[in-house]
């Protein structure tokens, strides 16, 4: 990756998640071809969306397109907002039993009348490409191989490619969700970082953030992280993604980090858009390939080696 600086980002290097994700997808495409030649199996991903949140519909469409680009099959299920929990569970059962489907993703958040925990855990652990079910979450927490949630996995790939060995570094994760913050903290712990987790009740989040060599922010509060939250030279990974209106009546995506004031202080920083977002989708495709490999007991792949966490 080339050093990119601009007047607004003074010393900070932009971490180009978009370019990294493009390379990862290309690598995945080649591996999907080889996998198909060896096993005559095409990896298949089912994506389920309940309700019609316009932003979710865009992500879901992008996922379908990128799935095709890497040579996988995509199965879309767009269900009405009024779908009952029972009928969603029935669909998941069908997808669990369908041999053409190797990965199942149910887009979150779900409508209020559906218990997300029950849904996430209904997905077979072998097809849980979001890595959010109790089996995969538990395996991550005890240090066993499993399927790792896409966003934290993408963040870790960016960090390792930028910084190499992370052992001994101080990492602060702001946000403690099951989707990002908690698995991110566990991954960094497994990499040998000294990890702190800040959350809604943390008394001095700025001080906690300022102690970090690696700062990961996943709160959904746009512009939360100001210049005085960041240690000079730190690597900042912005997971937040919020659509805000602009002066000319359009909208744009912004992160949880106040980019213009933080970029001159940080050593490296991910932009929004073009940072973590594209990595999430690229990692979803990796996880789907991994699930397909597990389904045929492909011992020739790194994924079946019991020590290897990362799908590359
Ligand atoms: N079960 C589940 N798993 C998820 O992984 C999941 C989810 N539910 N619900 C919604 C969030 C959101 N999410 C994004 C993925 C990619 C981009 C992405 O590609 N963003 C582009 C910009 C896209 C655009 O311009 O609209 C970028 O940041 O550059 C964004 C957001 C996955 N999520």
**How much strand content do the residues show?**
15-25%
Unreliable sequence segments: 303-312
Percentage of helical residues?
Answer: 25-40%
* Distinct helical segment count: 10
- What's the CATH first level of the domain at 149-278? Alpha Beta
> What is the average per-residue confidence, as pLDDT, rounded to a whole number?
92
The radius of gyration computed from the alpha-carbon positions, rounded to a whole number of angstroms, is 19 Å
Q: Which molecules other than protein and nucleic acid are bound?
A: 5,10-Methenyltetrahydrofolate
CATH H level of the domain at 149-278: which superfamily?
NAD(P)-binding Rossmann-like Domain
Q: Numbering strands along the chain, what is their spatial order in the largest sheet? A: 1-11-8-7-5-6
Q: Largest sheet at a glance?
A: 6 strands, parallel
Alpha-carbon distance between the termini?
17 Å
Write the H/E string, N to C.
EHEHEHEHHHEHEHEEEEHEH
CATH 2nd-level architecture of the domain at 149-278: 3-Layer(aba) Sandwich
CATH topology of the domain at 149-278: Rossmann fold
Global morphology: globular
The total beta strand count reads 11
Structural class estimated from helices and strands: alpha/beta
């Amino acid at each position: 990756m080339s050093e990119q600086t601009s007047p607004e980002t003074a010393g900070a290097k932009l971490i180009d998640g978009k370019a990294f994700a493009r390379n990862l997808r290309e690598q995945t495409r080649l591996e999907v071809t080889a996998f198909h030649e060896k096993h005559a199996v095409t990896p298949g991903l089912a994506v389920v969306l309940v309700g019609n949140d316009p932003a979710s519909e865009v992500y879901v469409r992008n996922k379908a397109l990128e799935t095709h680009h890497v040579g996988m099959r995509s199965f879309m299920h767009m269900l009405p907002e009024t779908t009952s929990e029972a009928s969603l569970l029935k669909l998941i059962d069908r997808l669990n039993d369908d041999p053409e489907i190797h990965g199942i993703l149910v887009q979150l958040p779900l409508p209020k009348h559906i218990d997300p925990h029950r849904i996430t855990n209904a997905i077979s652990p072998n097809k849980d490409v979001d890595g959010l079910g109790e089996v995969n979450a538990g395996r991550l927490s005890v240090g066993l191989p499993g399927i790792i949630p896409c966003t934290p996995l993408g963040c870790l790939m960016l960090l390792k490619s930028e910084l190499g060995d992370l052992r001994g570094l101080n990492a602060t994760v702001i946000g403690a969700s099951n989707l990002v913050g908690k698995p991110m903290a566990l991954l960094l712990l497994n990499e040998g970082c000294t990890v702190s987790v800040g959350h809604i009740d943390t008394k001095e989040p700025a001080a906690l953030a300022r102690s970090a060599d690696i700062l990961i922010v996943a709160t959904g509060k746009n512009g939360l992280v100001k210049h005085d939250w960041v240690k000079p030279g730190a690597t900042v990974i912005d997971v937040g993604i919020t659509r805000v209106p602009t002066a000319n009546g359009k909208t744009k995506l912004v992160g949880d980090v106040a980019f213009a004031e933080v970029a001159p202080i940080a050593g490296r920083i991910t932009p929004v858009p073009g940072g973590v977002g594209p990595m999430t989708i690229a990692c979803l495709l990796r996880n789907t390939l991994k699930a397909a490999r597990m389904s045929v007991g492909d011992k020739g792949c790194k994924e079946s080696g019991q020590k290897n966490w990362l799908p590359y």
